Structure formats: structure tokens, C-alpha cells
């Protein structure tokens, strides 16, 4: 794999760390600014919404800039946002810093996916995309626990300062290692927008929202679920999240390896298994060992869908994949926000802390149905051309005359 992928993975590591580390530092941040935990939770919500809005916005703004330069500008924006968070004198300023950093998230992964795919042979594209996303998954195993530990021990501001420094490393790596690939000739914003007329692109994005939403319906409420249902101590939740992160790493690598060979079958297996495992989590959540195994499986199955879904968007968007790729990253965060809201609704309805698992299972099952629909539409679209191509010239002329 090209060294340029390492630079992209470092940037992804920093972005993944800043996205998730705040969840472990909310009490410290709330206490420092004198706000409630729910109010501090706006730092999570604001980031997610910033990703959804920033993915298309930043990609559109970068349509006239080379992809390498845009990646560098996005990393600079990421650094600025985290520095603002680290130095924020008031909660509102930190919220602004979080939103500024989030604006780089979707476009970085969207443009980075396109660049990663262009750096390798056609049959290795999904593997290259998975290599970049490895930075995001490793962040959940290493960056988030370490960032939480540093924040709780030394201060949360130090954590965000370190994350900003990671952004600097990523920026330098991109500047030195990523080649300045030429922009595709003739591709303009209208070409990028045209990709959204393709039903397959929209179906892939819907699968992203529902499939990844299934994962976060459960994981968003993992702390109360594990302490109340399984009987874990509060301090054990960090290590359970490490297990989830390890599952993410494994699933991402497996997804990248097999998506180039059998993309749709991989989606069938991963989404189907994810739905079943999430449903079973309602029962395994009451046993410490089974709960830990299930959490790792959810991470693995959820992230096994990331490379194939991202590659499917790139393939179906054809010659103008950048905006569609970035919007698909926003779709992951839209799924996070949707599932967290739905999971909160069933808990508020008095159905218990394990009830979000049923929500997750239903969302993953819906994504599986969309995968079957996508494949059926693709077969239908190919069939007429295959029939015509297989007929004799006289028969083709007869068909044309009709």
C-alpha cells in the first residue's frame, strides 16, 4: 500500500479521536463550564450535525481546488477547531470549536476515499479505502481511551491540545506523501450533483443511515445498559468500548478485503448478521461475558459494511464521486443521530435500557432489505442490454423496428 494511505490514516485517527473522546469527558467539561450533563451533550449533537452539514458544504467549496490541497485545508480547519475547543473561555465558544472541527470530518473522509481509491489498482480500491478508515477504527481502541485517561487525569483541555497536534502531523503527512493528483477533466458541480439522480447512490446512502444507525442505537446507551443490565462497574465501560473498537478494526479490515471480490454478498451477510446479533443483545446484555462478546461482534459487523458501502457509492457515482462520497460520510453521522434519538424514545417509554437493541435490529434489517432491493434493480437494469447483446444482428434489427 502507498505511504500516502498512512498520511490519510493519521488524519482519520485524529478525526476519530476528537469525535468520540468527548463522550468520556462530558462530566469534566460540564463541571468546568458549570453546565448540566444534557447541556454538555450538545457538544456531541453539534458535532454530528456539523458533519452532516459540512460534508456537502466543504466538498462543494472545494470543487475548484485540487484534492490534495483540499485535504490540507480540511486538516487546517480541524486543527483550528480543536485549538479553539482547548482554549475556549466559555461553553458557547467550545461548542463553536466543535462545530468548526466537525466541518472537516465528512469532506475529509469523502475526498480521502476518492484519493485512496485512485492510488491503487482497480481491484484494490476497497482495501485502500479500508486502510484509511483503519485510522478511525484504531482511534476507538487507542485514541479515545488514552484521550479520556489524559482528560480525566490532567485536564480535558490537554486532550484537545493533543488532538490538534495530531492534526498537525496529519497535515504534514498529506503535504509530503499524498501526490497532487489531477482533477478529472470536465467534472463540475453539476456533474457531482447529477450523481444524486442515481437510485443506486441514494439506496447505498440509505443503507448507510440504517445499517450504521443500527450499531449506534445500541452503543449510544452502552454505559447505562452495561451497568444496570449486566452489572459492570462504571469504570469497566471504557474497556468495553475498547472491545467495540477492536471489533471495528477487525470488521473494517475484513470488509476492505472482501468488498473488492463480493461486495453485495458481503453486505447481505454483514447486515443480516448485525440484525440478528443486535436482537440477541437484548438477552446477552444480562451476562457479563456474553455482553462483552456481543459488543465486539457489533463493532465488527457494523464496520464490515463501511468499505463496501463507500465503494458502492464511488462506483455508482461514476465520474463525479467526490460529493456523493462526502455526503455518504454525513449519512453515517445522520444514522448515529437518528438511532440515538429513537433509542432514547424507547427508553423514555419505560421499555428498559436494553430496548434500543430492538431498534438497532430493526434498522439493520431495513438496511438488508434495501440491499436486496438495490441488487434486484441492478439486475433489472442489466437484463435488457444483456438480452439485446446476446441476439443475432437480424434479431436486433427486428427488435429495433418494433
Task: Give an account of the 3D structure.
It is built from 17 helices and no strands. With 402 residues, the protein is mostly helical. Helix 5 (91-118) runs antiparallel to helix 6 and helix 11 (237-259) packs across helix 14 (306-317). The model is unreliable at 386-402 (pLDDT under 50).
Q: Could you name the ranges where pLDDT drops below 50 across 5 or more consecutive residues?
A: 386-402
Return the CATH topology of the largest domain: Growth Hormone, Chain: A
Beginning-to-end CA distance, first to last residue: 53 Å
Helix content: over 70%
Count of spatially separate domains: 2
Helix-strand topology string: HHHHHHHHHHHHHHHHH
Q: Strand share of the residues?
A: under 5%
CATH architecture of the largest domain: Up-down Bundle
In the CATH hierarchy, what is the superfamily of the largest domain?
MFS general substrate transporter like domains
Radius of gyration: 22 Å
The level-1 CATH class of the largest domain? Mainly Alpha
Shape verdict: globular
Number of DSSP strands? 0
From the helix content, strand content and strand pairing, which structural class follows? mainly alpha
User: What can be said about the biggest beta sheet?
Assistant: none
Mean pLDDT: 84
Summarize the structure.
Pfam families: MFS_1. With 402 residues, the chain is mainly alpha-helical.
Offer a few descriptive terms.
402 residues; mainly alpha; Growth Hormone, Chain: A; 2 domains; globular; disordered C terminus; membrane; Inner membrane transport protein ydhP; cell membrane; MFS_Efflux_Transporters; transmembrane
